Task: inverse folding
């Protein structure tokens, strides 16, 4: 790395679990970029002051992860449509004259991951578990893929209702909501089950849903990548269903960030996946 290296990073609290430094590090090596990508542990109350400092230090931009995505959205001067719909940003670019440009590449990353896995849900129904920020990105992704209907099921049904009410006017897809007990009625003709809840993440209890009720040609996608094979995916695999893990979304959401930071369009490859899998074990 030289004194002219392009510097970017990821801000989280905590940030130690983030795979983004490994991911961007792989691409920096592969493309021989004179640059660095660093993890930045920043408490929520310090986000604004840290962003100011990074901008004044010549950072190209940063990715934002939990819990900063909504707070980041409130700080930016311009955003893309995905960020406006989601009310959250995962990518900040330091523009000219102090402008802070926010983007949300999560939905596009998930859509690309599902496309990559040949999951065709055009004109079909999908069940989406969860109603938080990740669920909003999930709804946008399934809408972009042409789903006919998204059935949002959440433990707290009023949260699902609020999420659906705020997103519905911006979508082509029909949204319906229910609680987790509505599972049997929601799944019987679904082509895709998408889990956006944090249940199943390392240390969290898994959801206990009867996967036998899913059609035999349904696919199951979990956006969690730690562990890579969640209990949900393991049970879907045992049931003979196609499964899509969270690494695809992670890799594809990072493509526009790397291009914005370093000026090179990177590729999502099997080598990159293997590199990330090795970092997870
Ligand atoms: P994110 O922004 O990553 O989506 P979040 O806003 O905290 O994070 O949302 C977490 C989601 O996981 C919510 O839908 C939450 O359900 P509630 O809205 O009912 O809290 C869901 N979730 C977390 N743990 C869960 C569990 N053990 N069982 C069911 N749902 C769970």
Result:
């Amino acid at each position: 790395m030289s004194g002219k290296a392009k510097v970017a990073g990821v801000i989280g609290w905590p940030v130690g679990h983030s795979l983004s430094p490994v991911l961007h590090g792989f691409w920096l090596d592969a493309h021989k970029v004179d640059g660095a990508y660093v993890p930045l542990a920043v408490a929520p109350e310090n986000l604004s002051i840290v962003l100011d400092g990074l901008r004044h230090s010549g950072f190209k931009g940063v990715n934002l992860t939990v819990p900063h995505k909504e707070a980041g959205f409130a700080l930016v001067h311009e955003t893309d449509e995905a960020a406006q719909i989601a009310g959250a940003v995962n990518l900040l670019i330091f523009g000219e004259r102090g402008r802070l440009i926010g983007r949300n590449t999560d939905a596009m990353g998930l859509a690309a991951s599902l496309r990559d896995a040949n999951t065709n849900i055009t004109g079909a129904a999908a069940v989406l578990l969860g109603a938080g920020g990740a669920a909003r990105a999930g709804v946008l992704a399934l809408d972009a893929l042409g789903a006919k209907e998204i059935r949002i099921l959440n433990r707290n049904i009023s949260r699902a209702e609020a999420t659906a009410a705020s997103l519905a006017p911006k979508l082509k897809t029909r949204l319906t909501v229910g609680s987790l007990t509505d599972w049997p009625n929601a799944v019987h003709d679904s082509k895709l089950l998408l889990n956006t809840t944090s249940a199943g993440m390392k240390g969290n209890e898994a959801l206990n849903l009867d996967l036998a009720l899913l059609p035999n040609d349904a696919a199951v996608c979990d956006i969690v990548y730690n562990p890579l094979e969640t209990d949900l995916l393991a049970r879907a695999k045992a049931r003979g269903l196609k499964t899509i893990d969270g690494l695809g979304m992670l890799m594809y959401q990072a493509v526009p960030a790397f291009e914005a930071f370093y000026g090179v369009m990177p590729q999502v490859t099997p080598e990159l996946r293997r590199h990330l899998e090795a970092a997870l074990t």
